[in-house]
Amino acid sequence: MAATCSSSFPSLLPLPKARIPKFSFYSSFTTSQSNFFTVTSRQNLINGDFVNNIRTPLTLLKAQASSVNGEKQPMLPPFNVLITGSSKGIGYALAKEFLKAGDSVIICSRGGERVESAVQSLRAEFGDLLVWGTKCDVRDGKDVKNLVAFAQEKLKYIDIWINNAGSNAYSYKPLAESSDEDLIEVVTTNTLGLMICCREAMKLMLNQPRGGHIFNIDGAGSDGRPTPRFAAYGATKRSVVHLTKSLQAELQMQDVKNVVVHNLSPGMVTTDLLMSGATTKQAKFFINVLAEPAEVLSRLK
C-alpha cells in the first residue's frame, strides 16, 4: 500500500479535463442534477508534492464564484493558511511546505511551549513575517474563537484551514482495556474538536468576500476498515468523512460556492500520536506505516 492523498473537491465551476493540473491525480468526476461538481482525487505521494495537491487546484478555482453576500473577490496565491495540531508531526511538516511555497501560516496546539518552540524554529528558517502561532485546544469553543480572532489580527483572512489536530489517547490495546478518560480524550478531540473547528472556520469564511477552503484530515478507519487495538480512533476518523460530506451538502443547499470543505488523506504516517506505546519497527509491522511526516510532504525519488 502506498501513502496516498485523497481529496474531495466540489468545484466552483465544471472544469474541462484539459485544465486538471499535470502533476495530476487519478481523477473521477460526478455531477448531480444541481450541478454540484465533485472531483475525487488519489495520488501516490512517493511521486508527488503533497502541498501542491492543495494549492494548485485552489489556484485554478480562484475566482469562479461569489460569496454569500454577493460580493466577489479572487483567491490568489500566496495563500493564508491555518493548521491545527501543527507544533509537530505532519501538521508541522505541512506548515514548512506552505512556507516554502511563500504562503503565510498560523500554527497552533494545546501546548503553548511547543507552539512557541515550533514558531521559533520556523522563523529561523523562513523569517519573522510569514508565521505566527498561538495556544489552542480545539475541544474548547472559546479557544477556537480566540484562534479565529488571532488569525484575523495577524492575517485579516484565512484561505486554507486544515483540521489536523487529533488524539489517540490509548494505543495498541483492546477497547475493553480503555478508560473513560481515554475515550473522552479521543472523541472530544477528533470528533467534537473537528466540529467546533469546522463551525468557526465556516463562519469566518462565509463572511470573507474571497471565501475559503477547509481541509479535514482523516486517518485509519476513515475508509470503513476495522482498526483493532485503536478502535475508538478509527471510529472517530470514520466520522470525518461523514461530517465533510454533510457540510458539503449544507453549503450546496445554501448555494454557497466559494466556501468548500474537503477530505484529505495523507496516508498512515509515523507521528507521536501513532507511535506512543510502540517502536517505529513495531508500528510499521502492525499498521504498515509507510512514511515519516516530512517524507509525506516532499518529493521522494
Can you walk through the features of this model?
The N terminus and C terminus are likely disordered. A six-stranded parallel beta sheet has the order 6-5-4-7-8-9, with helices on both faces. The two termini are 17 Å apart. α4 packs parallel to α5 and α5 runs parallel beside α6. It is globular and about 50 Å long. The chain has one domain: 3-Layer(aba) Sandwich (Rossmann fold), CATH 3.40.50. The protein is an alpha/beta fold. The protein has nine helices and nine strands.
Task: List the topology elements.
Blueprint: E1 4-11, E2 26-31, E3 37-44, H1 50-60, E4 80-83, H2 89-100, E5 104-109, H3 112-126, E6 131-135, H4 141-155, E7 160-163, H5 180-206, E8 212-217, H6 231-253, E9 259-264, H7 272-275, H8 280-287, H9 293-296
Parallel strand pairs: 4-5, 4-7, 5-6, 7-8, 8-9
Antiparallel strand pairs: 1-3, 2-3
Helix pairs in contact: 4-5, 5-6
| Major sheet | 6 strands, parallel
Integer-rounded radius of gyration: 18 Å
Distance between the termini: 17 Å
> What number of domains?
1
What is the CATH architecture annotation? 3-Layer(aba) Sandwich
- Helical fraction: 25-40%
Low-confidence stretches: 1-48, 60-70, 268-301
Structural class: alpha/beta
Q: pLDDT average, as an integer?
A: 74
- Widest sheet: strand ordering: 6-5-4-7-8-9
Tell me the CATH topology: Rossmann fold
